[in-house]
Design a protein that fits this description.
This protein is of the alpha+beta class. The chain contains 2 helices and 4 strands; from the N terminus they run E-E-E-H-E-H. Helix content is about 20%, strand content about 15%. The mean pLDDT is about 95. The structure holds iron/sulfur cluster (2 copies). One iron/sulfur cluster (SF4) binds next to helix 1. InterPro entries: 4Fe4S_Fe-S-bd, 4Fe4S_Fe_S_CS, YfhL-like.
């Protein structure tokens, strides 16, 4: 599934430059993840890099956007060819 940034985000800008899919942008209040671009870092890293770099652990699974590993891999291929 795609990941979601909680409202507790402190806009520290650590995650945005680390996302290999450019899925993270600053929203109206806090950073947001584009579900069409987030692959949970499948194809790039072993685990979500935004989760690894977030200092306050506010990036969580998005229960409203559940996807299988195959779905995420297909998304990766569609994004990067
Ligand atoms: S899990 Fe990976 S692809 Fe998804 S938003 Fe975080 S860094 Fe980007
Ligand atoms: S690393 Fe965490 S606190 Fe910092 S901008 Fe990203 S989600 Fe927000």
């Amino acid at each position: 599934m795609a990941l979601k940034i909680l409202d507790s985000c402190i806009n520290c800008d650590m995650c945005d430059p680390e996302c290999p899919n450019e899925a993270i942008t600053l929203g109206a209040k806090v950073y947001e993840i584009n579900v069409d671009k987030c692959t949970e870092c499948i194809g790039h890293y072993e685990k979500p890099t935004c989760v690894s770099v977030c200092p306050i652990d506010c990036v969580k699974p998005d229960a409203e956007n559940v996807e299988s590993e195959d779905d995420l891999l297909t998304k990766f291929i569609n994004l990067h060819g």
